[in-house]
Amino acid sequence: MKIMVISEKPDACARIAVALDPGAVRRSIQGMPYWTGKIDGNTLIFASSLGHLYTLSTRVPVYPVRTYSWGPRTEVERLPRQLRESINMFMRGLAALDSEIDLYVNACDYDLEGSLIGYMVLHRLLQGKDQKAKRMFFSSLMPQDLRQAFQRLQPLDSANVEAALARHEVDFLYGINISRALTVALISVGEEFRVLSAGRVQSVVLNWVVERERNIRSHTPLPKWLLKAKMNADGASFEANHLPGAVLDLENAKKVQAESSGKWAEVVRTERRLETVAPPPPFRLGTLQADAYRFFGLAPDRVLEVAERLYLDALVSYPRTSSEKFPREDPRVILEGLSGILPFKKLAEDLLRRPELRPSEGRGVDRAHPAIYATGTAPKGRMSGDEWRIYEMVCRRTMSCFADPGTLERTAIILRCADHLWETAGVSIASQGFYRYYEYSLPREKPVPPLQQGVQVFVSQVELTEEMSKPPASFTILSLLSRMEHVNIGTPATRASTIKTLAQRGYVEGPGYRATDLGLTVADTILAFCAEFTNEQMTRALEEKLEAIVDGKTSRSVVVEEVRRRLDRLLLEMKKNERRIGMSLAGKPSAACRLCGRQATPTGLCRDHEQSEENLKKAVEEWIRRHGGHLPREEVKKRLRDIPETGGWVKDLLFEKSQADGQR
Ligand SMILES: [Zn+2]
C-alpha cells in the first residue's frame, strides 16, 4: 500500500517520519521538503501543510453578507511576499505528490484547527481525498507515542472538521458584517473611510476593558491611615501592625499613635498553625502561561511559542490543552527519563523509590489531550534561555505532582498596648514536600521573635502613614486571557490573537491594556445600538453550540443558519440607526459635553462626567468626615487634583473648577 501522511508543519512532519521509519529519507519536490519511508511493507510519503492554506472570503461588496466561500489564502489575503511564495510552493508540492495513493492520514495536531488544516488539504487541494483518509491521534511527538498512534489509526474526525468549519464561518459572518455596518455608518455622516473592526469575541473583551477604564477614570480616592510600630525585646527589634488594620479617621489614628509610642506592650497570645499545601495539578496552557509570566515575566504568546518548540522536539506534550489530568501511561517511564537528566536526577530518583505514584490532578478537562507534562526526553543540542526555563518549569511541575504536600508554619504574636492591639506575623517552612520540586512558588520565610505570653516589649516608635484607596488594577494580558478562559469564550488557540487585534485597532493601548477614547467610543456605540453583540451569555451560548457540533448534538448548518438569522435582525436595526451610529462614532453628538465633547445630557455633561461629579461630591464629604470635620472643602479639592490615583474624568472637573475660580 502507498500511504500519504499529512502533518501541520514541516517540523512535525520530520519528527513523524523518523519516528515511524528511522531510515526515512528527506526529499524535495517543487522546492517543498517531504520524506519517504517504509513500514510493514507499505510505502509511506510524509508531507506537510504550512498551517492554514485556505481562508474565508466573500464576493458581496456591501452588508449584510450571508454567503462566503473558502479559497486559497494566497488569492484572498494580502500576505507578505515570502509567505505567499512559501504557501504556493507547498500547495504545488502536495498536489505533485498526490499520485496512486491508497490511504491518506491526517496527522495534523489533534485539535479543531489541525483537523481543519488536514481536511482542507485532503478535500480541497487534493480534491475529495478525505474519502480515503484516516486520522492519527497523538498528544506528544515521542517516537513510541507516534508509532502507537499510527498502529491505531481512527476514522477521519468529521465532527471536529464540521465544528472547526462552523467556528470559522460564524466568526467570519459576525466580524465582516458588524465591521462593515460600523464603517458604512461612519461614512454616511461624511467621515473618511477607516476600518472599524468588531468581532464575536473581540467585542465582549473590549467591553470588559472599557468597563474597567470607566472605573479607573471616575475613581475618587479616599484617605486611610496605617499604623506601624517598632518594638524592641531583648535587644531584637521587630515591626508590628495595628489591629484590625487601617484606621478611617485621622483623629483616631493620632490617638493610637500617641497612646502607644514610648510605652510598654505585653504579649497577650501567640498563635501557631500548620498549613498544608497540596501539590499543584499538572499544567494546562493557562496555568503554564500564568506561572511563566509570574516567575520569569514572559508574555503568554512567547510562552506558547516556546512550548510549541519544545513539543516539536518531543520534550513536552501538546501544549494547547485545557486538561489538568495526567496521561494514563505509567508515570515511571517519564520519571525514569527525567532521572537521566542531570539537574533532575536526584529529584526523580527519590520519587521512583516510592511504592506507589499517584499524581495530583485538577478539574480541567480537554476533549483530546491530557495536561502538559514533560515526556522525560533529554534535550539534544543547545536551548535558548527561554526554552530551558520553560522546559525546566514543566519538568519540575511534572515531578511535583507526585510529591507530598508542603507544610508551612504560620505564627502570629498579638500584643496589647493601652487599649490597642498589635500583631506581628511570620511564616516558616515546616516541611518542603512538593516545594522541593516546584521551588518557584516556595514562600519566602519571615521569622518572628520567640516571645512568650506575658512578656513586656518596648514600643520605641509608631509610624503613621496616609494611604489612598486605589482604582481597580488595569488588565494584564494574563488577566484578560484567564477571564476569557473562565467564562469560556474563544479557544486556547485564538484568545491571544483576539487581544492583539484590540491593540492593533487602537482600541486599547499600553501594557495595562487601557481602553483608548476610540475604544470607549466604539464600545459605547455598539452598546447603544446593538448591545446584544457584547452580551457575554449570548457569546458563551454560541460557544456551547459550537462544542455541541463535536458531540453530534447539532450541525454546522443549523448553527450557522441561526447566526445568519440573528445577524439579519441585528443588522436591520443597525441600518435603521445608521446616521445615529455614524454620528456617535464620528464624535458628532447632538449636544456636546463641555469637558470632553461626547454626547451630553441636558446637564451639559456626558454620562461619565456626570457620574464622576457625583462620585466627587460624595468623596469630598467623606474626606471631611475622616478628618474630623476640620478640613476645608477647597483644600480637599486641591489635594485630589494632585493625587495620582484620582481618575482622569474627576480631574477634568477639578481643573475646570479651579480655572473658573482663577478667572473670577
Ligand atoms: Zn464628558
Summarize this structure briefly.
The protein has 22 helices and 17 strands. With 664 residues, the chain is an alpha+beta fold. Helix 7 crosses helix 16 (517-529) and helix 9 runs antiparallel to helix 14.
Describe the overall structure.
By secondary structure, this protein is α+β, with helices and mostly antiparallel strands. The protein has 5 domains: about 1-155, Rossmann fold (3-Layer(aba) Sandwich); about 165-220 and about 475-585, Topoisomerase I, domain 2 (Orthogonal Bundle); about 225-275 and about 405-430 and about 445-470, Topoisomerase I, domain 3; about 285-400, Orthogonal Bundle (Topoisomerase I, domain 4), CATH 1.10.290.10; about 605-664. Helix content is about 45%, strand content about 20%. The chain is built from 22 helices and 17 strands. It has helices at about 10-20, 75, 80-95, 110-125, 145-150, 160-190, 200-215, 250-260, 285-295, 300-310, 330-340, 345-350, 385-400, 475-485, 495-505, 515-530, 535-550, 555-575, 580-585, 605-625, 635-640, 650-664, and strands at about 1-5, 25-30, 30-40, 40-50, 55, 70, 105, 135, 155, 225-235, 235-245, 265-275, 405-415, 420-430, 455-470, 510, 515. The protein has a 7-stranded mixed beta sheet, sandwiched between helices. The protein has a 6-stranded antiparallel barrel with strand order 10-11-14-13-12-15. Strands 5-6 form a two-stranded antiparallel ribbon. A hairpin with a 4-residue loop joins strand 16 (about 510) and strand 17 (about 515). Helix 1 crosses helix 5. The protein is flat. It starts with a strand and ends with a helix. The mean pLDDT is about 95.
